[in-house]
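Re: beginner question about structure tokens

> Can someone show what the tokenized structure looks like for a real chain? I only ever see the sequence side.

Sure, here's an example I had lying around. Input first:
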Amino acid sequence: MGKGPFSFRRSSSRRRLKKAPEGPLPPPPPMMIEASSSPNNQTANNSIAAAPGSAGGGGAGGKAKKKTGGARLWMRFDRCGQSELLECDKNTIIKRAAIPARDLRILGPVFSHSSNILAREKAMVVNLEFIKAIVTAEEVLLLDPLRQEVLPFVDQLRQQLPHKGPCRVQGASPVDTQDTEVHFSTGGQWLPVPESSEGLQHELPFEFQVLEIALEVVCTYLDSNVEDLERDAYPVLDELARNVSTKNLEHVRSLKSNLTRLLARVQKVRDEIEHLLDDNEDMADLYLTRKWMQNQQNEALLGAAVSNSLITTPPYLRRLSSYRSVSLATSNFADDDDVEDLEMLLEAYFMQLDGTRNKILSVREYIDDTEDYVNIQLDNQRNELIQLQLTLTIASFAIATETLIAGVFGMNIPCPLYEMNGVFNPFVGCVTAGCVLLFLLVLGYARWKKLLGS
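And the corresponding structure tokens:
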């Protein structure tokens, strides 16, 4: 029976063997990379970070990457500048950062050159040119960190975050820690107070430090592109002004198209910053650290109020303690609408982008002036050709008059001049002189009417 032509036992076992390896594979563990300021460690980090991309070309690695389906490479930075590589799918990022799914579409390849800075409840979505990141009050999730354009941003985060962020150093005494942070007590719990409310320190929050680094990298990148464009533009335009040729016109056409694309990219970033500056509510929503601390302190105050309510106290004391807790919470966050720090930060980079935009506009004005000069040259040559054509037309009219007279005398009509000897040469000379005189008269009339140049 097993050897018959209609036996299905062997084929079904083969199907089971083929379907067995198609089960879901466990996700690979995230690769940890310790951030360091030394160049050796940075080089090692870059080499380790490049390992997943190179391993994806192998057979087993390619199959494993195909099994994950939708997972993309992210790099996580904390407040101290420590970094790690993560391979997460869309749902994991949505749950981790508490953002809607449409924000991940904004970070996708469709909006590769768009510029958006979006404020969410617990995160800030930053999409500036090649920098695509999700910033929270505690960490940064950077998409595609191994791209060539993103590497300067990664290096800046590793260099500046350890110096700017409030990191807890190993071996530091509690006194040192208390010197850098201000706390208040609620029911036995100590929570950090926003530094701007006390006025002791004036340091930007973590999310604004990341935003500042991102704007600095993007503005520097755009400014370098504008400088390269200026370096290539002026010699090409000067050459076109000296020699109008097809090759030079093609160079100017390519230059103008690059300038238009670069101007659009600078304009997008500038418009996004201007949109934030015009709306104080959007800027207030970007204060993630303030909102996070407010939530933590409200929870602590609520817990303290609940624990105090369990103790039997007179009604007026209970009411007084509740009033004090509410007044403490409101006094600590009376400046929730204060967006001066972010406004100053955005205004600085808005002015820098405005200067970059003015450079591009000056190059475009120079291109327009060169085009006008070339058009004037071409119009002048066209006018010279028209004048030459008019002069030749007048000469043709004079010659045609002499040809008409010669044609009339060429007919077989009896004429007394035929019988006169030696009259041919004087007659031809007189007719030719008359034609020349007619040419000069018509030419003078054309000059008198300013149809021809002097």
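Each token stands for a local structural state, so reading them left to right follows the chain. The chain is about 65% helix and 10% strand.
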